[in-house]
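Researcher: Let's do a round of design. I'm pasting the structure tokens now; please hold your answer until I've finished.
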């Protein structure tokens, strides 16, 4: 592993409501995460590249939401689904329901263009 050269970061989502979530990483990753949060606070969004311990890289998207209605329309971040009906307090990720919670990807429509 390239512990001193790569930004290793694990982001663990909640399994269900009221459970803890964790962000853990090496120093380089946590500093980069802080920088990306600062950038998102200024620019609205930011993207960083990180690695889990298996070195399969991924992009982390960070965005600020200024509108409560938009925030409430986002799907919940839980990894467990609580039934077939998509309520705003449960994650079901339905795409055929116009009133369904939406993926947070809707907050990042232009990120590919910004990164080029």
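Researcher: That's everything. Go ahead.
Model: Designed sequence:
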């Amino acid at each position: 592993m390239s512990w001193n050269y790569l930004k290793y970061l694990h982001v663990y989502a909640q399994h269900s409501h009221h459970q803890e979530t964790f962000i853990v990483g090496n120093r380089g990753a946590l500093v980069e995460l802080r920088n990306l949060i600062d950038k998102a606070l200024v620019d609205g969004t930011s993207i960083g590249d990180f690695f889990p311990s298996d070195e399969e890289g991924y992009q982390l998207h960070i965005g600020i939401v200024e509108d409560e209605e938009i925030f409430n329309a986002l799907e919940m971040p839980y990894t467990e689904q609580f039934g077939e009906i998509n309520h705003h307090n449960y994650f079901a990720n339905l795409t055929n329901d116009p009133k369904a919670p939406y993926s947070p990807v809707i907050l990042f429509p232009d990120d590919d263009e910004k990164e080029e």
